[in-house]
Amino acid sequence: MNRLIVIIFIALVSGCSNYQFHSNVDKENFDNYFKPSHVIVYDKKQLLDLEYTVLGAVEGSSCQEAEIDVPASQREARTKARFNAADMNANGIIFHSCLNIERDETCVSNVICYGRALDVELPVDE
Q1: pTM of the full predicted structure?
Q2: What are phi and psi of 41, to 5 degrees?
């Protein structure tokens, strides 16, 4: 009886060996999704002890296009700025300000955050 179970199991496993798995998951989507996590947000005090180069100015905005949409947020604007910094190959960012823009013809609410993209030399642990 045990032999019969083993033979059936082997037949089932070998029958699936030619099975190919296809997915819509794309490596680039993962890279883009996690891109802002590679950019560390610093404040001025943290940068005093670090060597860094300013790569340029960055901004990010959050726009609530319709009344039924999620309101614009500083969190989303800062994340978009971190995306932009990552596109500049930055590993750090320092924010200067975030502004709440009044309602206009395109956005019910709008937040824009401004900062600088940084290339920070991280200390080597000895």
Answers
A1: 0.73
A2: -85, 120
